[in-house]
Amino acid sequence: MVDGVHLHAVDKVEGMQVPNARET
């Protein structure tokens, strides 16, 4: 699956509560 696109959108929303989401 496309982690780059998925994480990019998630990083904007969960980025504030889950800063490690981008590293996952």
Task: Provide keyphrases for this structure.
24 residues, mainly alpha, 1 helix
Please describe what this structure looks like.
By secondary structure, the protein is an all-alpha fold. The protein is elongated. It starts with a helix and ends in an 11-residue tail after the last helix.
Helix percentage: 40-55%
Q: Count of helices?
A: 1
Mean pLDDT score: 59
Percent of residues in beta strands: under 5%
Poorly predicted runs are: none
Broad shape:
elongated
Please write the string of helix (H) and strand (E) elements. Answer: H
- Between the first and last Cα atoms, what is the distance in angstroms? 14 Å
Helical/strand content category: mainly alpha
Largest sheet: none
Number of strands: 0
Radius of gyration: 8 Å
Compact summary:
46% of the residues lie in helices and 0% in strands. It has one helix and no strands.
Write the layout of secondary structure elements.
Elements: H1 3-13
